[in-house]
Each structure stands twice: as C-alpha cells, then as structure tokens.
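JOB MANIFEST
job_type = single_chain_structure
chain_count = 1
residues = 302
[input]
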Amino acid sequence: MALIATLSTHLFAYHPLDRAMIGAVASRGFGAIEIFAVPQHLGLLDLDAALHRLQSVLEAGIAIRALHAPFYASLEGLRAGKIFALGDRSPSSRRQARAALSHLLALAGEVGSPDIVLHLGHRAAECDGDQVFLSETAELLRQTPTFEGHLLVENTPQVLSAADDLTRISAQLDRRRIDLCLDLGHIFLHLSRQAATAPATEIPQCVASPEALPDAVLERIRHLHVHDNGGERDDHLPPGEGGIAWLPLLARLEALPREIGFSLELRDPESGVEPPDVVLAKILRRINGPVRDLLRSKGVRL
C-alpha cells in the first residue's frame, strides 16, 4: 500500500487559494493537495472562478487528491457557531449543506472527480442520524452523473467519533460510491476522553490498536486526516507534538493493500498573520518522529 503525502489547505484558512498558496505547496515537494472548499479557497457561488482555481492547481503539477465539502458560509459565521451538515435535524442546515455539496459535485466532475470529504454532522444533539444523511447523499449522487468519484464520510469529535460508530456507518454505505475519511486526531481525542473517565481496568487501547481501528473500518478508508493533539482539545497540532502513537499506527496503515491519501490537516497558530510559504515552512519544521521520516521518504521538504 502507498500513503500519498497530501497537504490540506485547512492550514491556510485565512488566505485565498492563489498563486502564492499553490507555489508554497509545490515548493515543499507535495505532489497532491486536499482543497478545503470554504469561501476563501473555493467559493461555490461562482463556479467559473472556482474551476479556474482548480485548473491553476493542476497546471502547477499538483494532483487534487480530495476536496473537503464546506460546512460554514464564512469565517465570521463559523466563529458564531453557524455550521451545517447533511445529517442535521434542522431542515435549513440540511438545505445549506445540500446546496454546497451539489455545487461541489458538479465542480469536481469538471476536474477528474477527486473524492469529496464531508461531515455527517458536528453536534450529536443536533444530528438526525444515519438515514437522513444516507438519503441525502444518494439523491445528490443520482442528480450529478458527471461526478464519478467517492464521497468520504469523516469522523468528527462528536459525531461518528468512536470506532463502533464508524463500523456501523460503514455497513450502510454504498461501497461503489461512499467510503471513509478517517481523521486520526479526532479518533485519538475520543479515545483520550474515554480514558479520562474510565476505571483504570477499562482504559481504551491506543489509536493504533485493533480495538480502536477494527478491520471493518480499515477496509473502508480511502483518505486520512493527519494531525495530533494532547487528548483534551481538537488542536490540529503537527504530528509528534501530541499523544498519538505514530509508529504502530503507521505500521497498520502501511499494511493496507491500496493507495490512501495521507493528508496533513494542520492549523495556523497565528491565524493568517504570515504568508503561506512562511506558515508552511514553520509548521513543517515542527513535525517530528515517524511521520517526519515518512514525509521525507515521499519527497516532502521539511
């Protein structure tokens, strides 16, 4: 199996998707990118402009490994807690998510149909369950025949947060069109929170264990979100700065018999103060341990 070194533009959430950002990614040796399809990177109200941005990425020799479906309309809305998802109980939230994903599916079909990552929901109390989500995604795929890729459901800290949840949803997904994006930071955060409240004799295994990542989950993974945390908050730290046991985890992942996107989904600690090339150089220098070795072996310049 090959892990494909990929950088998510999540790191550049405060910058536009322009030549400066694309050049920063290419200069560091990343041959693939995951584009965070939020308004500042890929506004979906002007599909011609969005298509031009995607073509600029391809012209720079960078493959579009995945597109991440938007879940907020603006950074200001995000700060105010205004987010949306296809599995939400709120009809208005589902309408927002449906409209955004419909545009993104059509756009992806124009550039080779890269996979699309999306969230079932974000807040457990507001989520309407699997069936609404499955119905919405099936209808959107039916309505967009030009899109030939896969939808990838991501585990978030509150929804699909446990391995059991991922096993359950995996059994219901149409294998021909829908699989999983496993967010390693999110599942480690869930396990750490469990461990903090469990009796010492019932502390969950680490994220790399068979109990944490059962075969039913591993066999459905097409893409990974890679970041670290200390077990308390969704920090999106560089790998090696948190508590994830990367060495056994990578051994399990590298044993899988297919290509998987290994997408660094990191956070700019200075919220856009510095340009993309400086932000990327600083964050890559902080990666250490087995992930650093892996990225170097893939030609990434750290």
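[summary]
The chain is about 40% helix and 15% strand.
The chain has a mean pLDDT of 92.
exit_status = 0
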